[in-house]
Each structure stands twice: as structure tokens, then as C-alpha cells.
Amino acid sequence: MAYTDFTLERLETEFGLRNRQEQIFTKILPIQPSPWLSRELQLAEGLPLRTEKARSEWIVAPILKELREQNDHFFTIYSGENLSADSSLGLNGECDFVLAKDIQTFNLNYPIISIVEAKKHDLEIGVPQCAAQLLGARIFNEKKGVHLEKLYGCVTTGRDWLFMVLEKDLQIDQDIYYLNEVDVLLGIFTQIISYYRTVLP
């Protein structure tokens, strides 16, 4: 069993993880993209982005690289990394993207944000996988002595972005954000990173 095998029902039955929809972000300060990112996204518009891999390379990765630059390399980006939290519980498997606090190590440490590429352009399909990865990240961190009250996740088609946050329960944002408001996306991610700046040494 792996992260991709979970449903929201299984997460509730096996881990007691209830979910609810609500507005997660109430005050968003938009951040203008750099000329480089604007150019990258403009170039992507003219490409046949039919696969998850293509959208990952041409849309998602540039946005994450921009965020890393804007946030003084506070976090690093892992792509296609295995997050093995507890294989006996099924909490293991490859992750599309994991953002982790950058502590200059080669191996994955302190995952803080999980990003799942939606299958078949369907955000809902990716929600249980992302939720399971957040549970895995919590266990992974706690084994290293890092206890975080919140872990954030996101499911994206590249053009549509749905956020969630794991606290005691799983909160799934009732709002979907879009690539044509990339300044809002950058603002949301920066708000999330700012939270981690206050709770991680």
C-alpha cells in the first residue's frame, strides 16, 4: 500500500482523520512574479502540456523555484522523492513535490509542504493522496523530534490549485486558485512559508 491507495474514507477509518471544507486563507497579499517567471509561464502557454510531467516541468517547477528565490532559500525542493514514514501503515511512496526546510543535507529532512499533481486534470482525485502524504510527513517529522501543528498541502493541475492544511483534522480549502492569478498563488505560498519561519529554528 502507498499514498496513492488511500481514500478519505480510509484515512478517517484507519487514522481518525476527519475532513471539512472551509476557507483557509482570508487575507492574501499578492506578490508580483519576477520577469523571469512571467516569461517562463508565457512560454508554457504555447506548449502542448498534455501530461503531468510536462505541466510539472513547465508550470509547477518554475513557480516553486521562484518561491525559493523570493524566500531566501528557506526551503528546498524535492521532486519524485520517496517519503517513507511508516510502510506498515501504508504511509510511504513517491511524492511529486515535497518542500522541506533547507538544512543543507542531501537526504530529505523536515518536510513542510506536499504538492500532488492531479491525475486526469481532476483535483479531487489528488486530495486523498495529498492528505496521506501530510500524515506521512507528520510521522516522518516526529520521528526526528520535529512537532509541527500545521502541515500544508496542495493538489494542482498546473492551472488549478487546491490547498489543504493538516492540523487535528484535515481542512480542505473551499476556494480554488488559478494560474492566471499567479500573484495570488505566490502570496499564499509565501504566507505558508512565513508561518514555518516562525515555528522552525
Characterize the structure shown.
The protein is α+β, with helices and mostly antiparallel strands. The chain has a single domain (3-199), classed as tt1808, chain A. The chain has helices at 8-15, 35-45, 52-70, 123-143, 182-199, and strands at 19-22, 75-79, 97-101, 111-117, 151-156, 160-166, 170-173, 177-178. Strands 1, 2, 3, 4, 5, 6, 7 and 8 form an 8-stranded mixed β-sheet that branches. A hairpin with a 3-residue loop joins strand 5 and strand 6 (160-166). Helix 2 runs antiparallel to helix 3 (52-70). The model has no long low-confidence stretch (mean pLDDT 93).
Overall 3D form: globular
Number of separate structural domains = 1
CATH class reads Alpha Beta
CATH architecture: Alpha-Beta Complex
Count the strands? 8
Q: What proportion of the residues is helical, as a percent range? A: 25-40%
Uncertain segments: none
Strand content: 15-25%
Computed structural class: alpha+beta
Termini separation: 34 Å
> Using only CA atoms, what is the Rg?
16 Å
What is the tally of helical segments?
A: 5
What is the CATH topology descriptor? tt1808, chain A
Give helix and strand order, one letter per element, not per position: HEHHEEEHEEEEH
Largest sheet properties: 8 strands, mixed
Average of pLDDT: 93
Summary, kept brief:
With 201 residues, this protein is of the alpha+beta class.
Write the layout of secondary structure elements.
Blueprint: H1 8-15, E1 19-22, H2 35-45, H3 52-70, E2 75-79, E3 97-101, E4 111-117, H4 123-143, E5 151-156, E6 160-166, E7 170-173, E8 177-178, H5 182-199
Helix pairs in contact: 2-3
